[in-house]
Design a protein that fits this description.
Length: 99
């Protein structure tokens, strides 16, 4: 196999792996948001929100626009879910039991 063809295959593999990683990090961010909204303990809510923000930031740092249409749709759906849950976290934490 020549160098250019090998490079193209490695690049495609890298992009696919990066997409899966971003997907997992967004799933993690969503999960932490759900955990934050499910608890009445304000300290746990803050901790889970912090973890959600960290997972989101990690995912965002790997997004570079090299997505095909299906991948972009999948990421956009997860981002919208995260954003809506993140707002819900802020609303829920106001109702949580004080620390």
């Amino acid at each position: 196999m020549d160098f250019q063809r090998r490079w193209v295959l490695l690049r495609k593999n890298h992009e696919a792996t990066k997409f899966r990683f971003v997907n997992v990090e967004l799933d993690l961010a969503i999960t932490y948001c759900l955990m934050a909204t499910a608890t009445t303990d304000r300290a746990r809510s803050y901790r889970n929100i912090s973890n959600a923000e960290r997972a989101y930031s990690t995912a965002a740092s790997f997004l570079d626009g090299n997505l095909d249409a299906a991948q972009k749709l999948a990421i956009d759906e997860k981002l919208m879910r995260f954003y809506s849950l993140r707002v819900l976290c802020d609303n829920t934490i106001e109702d949580a039991v004080p620390i």
